[in-house]
Specification:
single chain; mainly alpha; Cytochrome Bc1 Complex, Chain D, domain 2; 2 domains; binds heme C
Length: 168
């Protein structure tokens, strides 16, 4: 009889300790499952409403009115050119003041549509590929023909042309 009482006590004690754990864990898991289901269905419905994965993957800058070619150019431009020419293409990248104070030359301002109109497509290509001196400009416009492919240079040109288009 004593033995039975003891083991019943032990079982009750065990239950007392483990039950809340089991129930607790279970309800917690349920809560977090629900939460993640919420955010998942939220983002799914957003994805369906706005655009497909393919759209975003192909051209994340469609909303900015860029074509895929221009968008590829933007990625290259932001990486290689913006330090001098500025993210907005206005010739005021963070390196611009150094060039101006030390060498008295300013990076070309692509938003200036009057100035842009004086530079032919061929000159743009030559300046970018071979550097400033190839078109009688400053050596502080570096050559990019070793870094970028012809295709990439065309993409960069497509992008820098958008700066002056926007100004109109
Ligand atoms: C180290 C700074 C620097 C970087 C980086 C740079 N440029 Fe320039 N760029 C200049 C300067 C300075 C000029 C102006 C040269 C002058 O007026 O004599 C210039 C001029 C130009 C011109 C005008 C050429 C002309 O015929 O008037 C183009 C186009 C150009 N850059 C494109 C680019 C592109 C595209 C990139 C990135 C792939 C780039 N630049 C990166 C400094 C830079």
């Amino acid at each position: 009889m004593r033995m039975v009482q003891n083991s019943t006590k032990i079982i009750i004690m065990l239950l007392a300790v483990t039950l809340p754990l089991v129930v607790g864990c279970h309800s917690n898991r349920e809560k977090s499952d629900l939460a993640s289901q919420d955010t998942l269905s939220d983002s799914l419905s957003k994805a369906v409403v706005t655009k497909t994965f393919d759209d975003v993957f192909q051209n994340p800058y469609e909303d900015m009115g860029l074509t895929r070619e221009e968008y590829k150019g933007k990625v290259l431009y932001d990486h290689y050119c913006a330090v001098c020419h500025g993210k907005q293409g206005d010739g005021n990248g963070f390196n611009a003041f150094n060039l101006e104070s030390s060498f008295n030359v300013k990076p070309f301002n692509f938003t200036d549509s009057t100035a842009m109109a004086t530079v032919s497509q061929d000159e743009l290509k030559k300046a970018i590929t071979e550097g400033g001196p190839a078109v009688g400009k400053s050596q502080y416009m570096p050559p990019w023909g070793y870094t970028l492919s012809k295709e990439e240079i065309n993409q960069v040109i497509a992008y820098i042309l958008t700066f002056s288009k926007k100004e109109e």
